[in-house]
Amino acid sequence: QVQLVESGGGSVQPGDSLTLSCVGSGFRFGHYIMFWYRQVPGKGREFVARIDSNLRADYSESVKGRFTIARNDAQNTINLNMNSLKPDDTALYYCHLAFPDTWGQGTQVTVSS
How would residue 30 be classed by pLDDT, with cut points 50, 70 and 90? Predict the structure, then answer.
């Protein structure tokens, strides 16, 4: 069974840093592009970052330069290192595998003074 489990969310102040993790199981993790998305209530899920098996990464304009996605295929894990957090980064963050379409349960990030 394909499964993704996120962790690392929390409540922080503007300017702080936070690292999210996602552990995958039930598939050959190292072969797949992995994604981070986020969602706020009342809106659709927003692409945040992705990383392919060759470690090429892409980011949304809203997080470029502040967030870094990384993967450790030996541990079936991707991380999202988030720096200079802003209140607009407040959301439920999801790990995503496109094929098969799989989402984790999400981890909440709240940025507030």
Answer: confident
